[in-house]
Amino acid sequence: MTEPEAQPLLRFTGHRHLRTRLLLATLTGRAIRISQIRSTSHTHPGLTPTEVSFLRLLDAVTNGSSIEFSMTGTTLVYRPGLITGSSEGLGAIGGVIRHELHKECASRGVSWWIVPLCILSPFSKGNMNVVFHGEGCVTGATPAGDISADTVRTAILPLYRNFGIERNIELRILKRSCAPGPGKSAGGEVQLVFNHQVRLPKTLHLMNPGRVKRIRGVAYAVGVSGSNNARVIEAARGVLNKFVPDTYIFSDVSSAPLVPSNDKNNPGGKKKGAVGFGISLVAESSTHCLYSADMSSPPTGGTPPEDIGKQAAYQLLEVISQGGCVEKSAVETMVCLMAMGSEDVGRLAMGRDVVGSEDVIQLGRDLSEFGGSGWGLRDAGEGRDDLIVSVVGRGVGNVGRKVA
Amino acid sequence: MPALATMTTRTLKRKRVTREEPEQPSRSPTPSSSEAESDSDDGKLQDIFRKAFEAKFKPLDVEPKKQKIETVVEDVEEEDEESDWSGISSDGDEPNVEVVEYTSRTQLANERASKAELRAFMSSKPPTSSTPSLTQKKHKSKSSSDDDDPTESSHLKNDLALQKLLRDSHLLSSAAASAAASAAANTSLTATGAARHKSTDLQLLALGAKTSIHAQKSMPMAHRKGIIAKAREREEKRRKEAREAGIVLEREVKVKKKEGGKERERGVGGPSVGRFKGGMLRLSKRDVADITGHRGDRSAGRGGRGNGKSRRR
């Protein structure tokens, strides 16, 4: 790609917010150079396996990207190409990209890859159809704080409707898995189908959070008894039913995923992947704002299901109490799509704690670094605690769809 | 505080009583109205008095019976008030009532989501917020149609009728022409007879019916083959002529042959006859007939092209 050469490389340092920067680089088409990635670490300098896997994914869904590492992996130059999606002939087989997550990637949930991929998908030239699989594919919530694939489906993907992106979006959880302990592997399988590409997302004005009118959820048990689900659900409903009587939590029981046992004596053999249980809760307000909470059993086990259910319910209440129209885990999606929208001011009400969190602040800084205009902040007024964040779109939108 | 409150109510009550006191004798001069009723002489006297009174002033509308009931009710009310206040004063001495929230297990369990909702939420698509309000939506649409002014609904009706007429116009014209040729001209706009059947068929097709109701379902195979061949030949001829004349026609729709489900599986190691399923070889009636063979050789029947009678699927 010769086009981005006209602009100088954007320079960043440090390993923090690496994924967001790579995402913004791909969206805006700016080449970036990230240096000093964990350069002070003696044991694990450079990129982690998860970050490398994310770079591979970006490479798979784009055409013409170039990625250069330094010898130690502490410096990275990324020149993004055109987002082509899972077009035939570019790594996709039968219109599907199969992205394997290796065993080392199991520290993060699969949502760590899916959420940014979803942000890229509307701006893709062709359809997006990616299957995540492998020993590092964790569909449940993880102790690292990643949301579960269920929450992505029920709390993140519906947000795209606000931007006029709603057709042919699916997230199929083909095989469930929980966060594995040390020495174990996950072995989940998730398919993301995102076939609604747009030229420009609609301008968003979301100012009124409304009142929470219903709570839905999914309790999942993988390779453990389904009674765990019932106990989780009962504990969660015991807390939530008082506030919202319209509370339903569905139960999903599945067997443990099978992963190949890398055994020399038994080359075709399989063994069970990680087991566990968890819950994903989503609250919907009268103005279709979504708040979610996730909790799953720790890989070490030993936590009763009642505790998990209660913690998830309390977490949901906390997220709702932070106010605003978006929760913390959805801010990246909303703000990126607003920033990529038409040259118009979009407004979004956010809770003070949400805006004040480190990730959101850094996202704002990175966005302005990538050529976006700064955010405008003002009080929501009328005794409300929220802030109204105004984001101006870049007006570039989908480069691959310019002609169409 | 309670003491003060009682005081005020007392005074109020007193006042009310004093205000009512002059009224009561005016309605019923005797202190007990029941006595007045029973005694006829007293009643006469009362009538005389009343007439005299009414001659001087306005006529009175008095029902002594009702009056009695009212007074009784009032007494009861007063007693209630009295007891109420004493109750509150005693409440202060008692300890506070403990509130216990009780959500029973069974109550939680028997609330089940509907199957539709489960499907909507647990499918691979992101759940839409409008799914559970299906019933509400229906209701709303109904009410809106009710609320609409009659002209709107009549417009809609006329619109539908017009669409139907446009759709059927060619049928009607042909029917009218034939009718005119034969007998009196049929100028009515409603289709009758065969034309009506055709119009119904068109409507069904427009609504998404797979095949026309006039399409003949069963006919001899040679017959059908002939029809299909003729249609194909006609189409080919049309295309050929258009090509020669340099006319660009619509793109040809290629019919895919798909009979995968019906076709007999011929995997390696499968049975040469019948169906092997669940450790059992199943023979259909036709298979048995083929084996016992009063229809001739099986393999010949399969291979023979011209033999229309040996129909194997």
UniProtKB/TrEMBL annotation, chain A:
Record-level Gene Ontology MF annotations: RNA endonuclease activity
Keyword field contains Nucleus: yes
Secretion signal, residue range per the UniProt entry: none
Top-level lineage group: Eukaryota
Domain RNA 3'-terminal phosphate cyclase as annotated: residue spans: 11-343
Gene Ontology BP term (one): endonucleolytic cleavage of tricistronic rRNA transcript (SSU-rRNA, 5.8S rRNA, LSU-rRNA)
InterPro entries: RNA3'-term_phos_cycl_insert (IPR013791), RNA3'_phos_cyclase_dom (IPR023797), RNA3'_phos_cyclase_dom_sf (IPR037136), RNA3'_term_phos_cyc (IPR000228), RNA3'_term_phos_cyc_type_2 (IPR016443), RNA3'P_cycl/enolpyr_Trfase_a/b (IPR013792), RPTC_insert (IPR036553)
Family: Belongs to the RNA 3'-terminal cyclase family. Type 2 subfamily.
Full protein name: 18S rRNA biogenesis protein
Organism lineage string: Eukaryota, Fungi, Dikarya, Ascomycota, Pezizomycotina
Occurrences of domain RNA 3'-terminal phosphate cyclase insert (ranges): 208-320
Organism: Westerdykella ornata
UniProtKB/TrEMBL annotation, chain B:
InterPro entries the UniProt entry points to: FSAF1-like, Ribosomal_biogenesis_FAF1-like
GO cellular component terms given for this protein: nucleolus
Stretches for region Disordered: 1-159, 256-313
Start-end of Acidic residues biased regions: 72-84
Bias type Basic and acidic residues, positions: 41-71, 256-267, 284-300
Top-level taxon of origin: Eukaryota
GO biological-process terms attached to the record: maturation of SSU-rRNA from tricistronic rRNA transcript (SSU-rRNA, 5.8S rRNA, LSU-rRNA)
Biased composition (Low complexity): 1-10, 25-35, 123-135
Protein name in the entry: Protein FAF1
Originating species: Westerdykella ornata
